[in-house]
Amino acid sequence: MPGGELWKGFSVLYVPESVSDSDVQNSFGQAGINEVTCFSNQYLPIDLKADSCEIALMSLNQKSMDYLLKRNNYFFDKTHSYRLYYVPVYYKNKLNQVCSVLNRLPEARNGQGKCGVDSKSEYPFIIPILAAIFAGLLIFFSKKKFFYAGLTVLPVLFTFSFPFLSSEIAVFILLVLLFLISNIFGRRDFIKILLKKYVYMVLLGFSLLSVFSSGFVSGLIFILLLLSEYSYFYLFRKVKILQYKKNHFNPVMIRSSFSVPLYGGKEKIIFGTLLGLTVLSFGFSVLSSGGTDNSASGGSISLPSVSAARKSADLPDLEEYYLWDYEIRSFPYKSVNYVYENASGTEFSRFEKNGDSVVYSKDVLEYSPSYAENVYNGIDLLQFNAFEKIMKKQGESFSAGYASNGSHRLSLFCIIISFIQFAIILISFAFLLIKSTGKAKRGRK
Length: 445
Prior knowledge:
mainly alpha, 52% helix, 16 helices, single chain, 3-stranded antiparallel beta sheet
């Protein structure tokens, strides 16, 4: 989604390295923010005593150190130019006060950037609303209102899930194409006339490219949307055939598709509305997009996020945390003469005094789903604001990568494709007006 938090339930304050951590903590206190997760208040996320043999030998275990080093990346941006502070979302309004205080400090004014919050943009409701308005207009002009209304449900829902310019224009074009099909569906030669409308095939192709410019997932779901619309037509056709077989008398469509007006005489209204909504959407997307002015170069800042397009190997997940916990607890009992790369369990002996005798027992520490579950349940028992608590709130199967702060950024490819779509729609509308004007002149003669 464009906008919103990069982390579910948390806002992220990024502060230049030139500003001291003590100044940031003082600003939090003045603003009344008492819950902060940051680099300076982190400890080992494990319930072992500092003088235990497991902790003492931890520095000798490269695997355990790797996790801790990767975990530190959550508290810095990708270039390590900014420190990150994670604050519960209900403090979000107070973060603006913190930013204004910190940005007035000499260290911030003389540094290479300013303090800021991960994202201040809101969900772009105008995108799906415009799609719903256009769908409602086409339903009003459709000859088969209930049939066409069923066709518009999934495309409109698609814009709610992917509220981007590329997705909206693609849905606009798809709605017009479905409008044409619904008007002639079931008549003779309706497939032939659709294949002759090259402009819609071209627009549909550009729509696919445009949707994929927002991401592979949105493009894949748009393809599934097209298959769903085809299934709708197929099932509707099958139901009609069954009804024909049960009835003694069935009406027959005499006129072929070539003799039926595709737009129902509402070409100018439909194309005019399509052009207007496209321009409005494009203008809104351009005004609400862009980077941030918080860095010296004017570019965006890459922050750790669960909403990133791809997972980063430098940001560990909960599974890596479970393995780290197991490595810490089992390392002192592993033989230094044996490689335990593929071992799922570790055996070690225990000797306990029972009266006058010593009892020998053998314990097995095994990494298993139950072990991972115990570690997961123990996260909330950690006696500090461990980052693992934030990880747990994202969901057990979360993965993190790097995403840009600020509003959604329109890619150059998306702008080019959207402009081509608009140009084709504009040319088609102009051709339609010229054609209708020519017919009117011939009629007067």
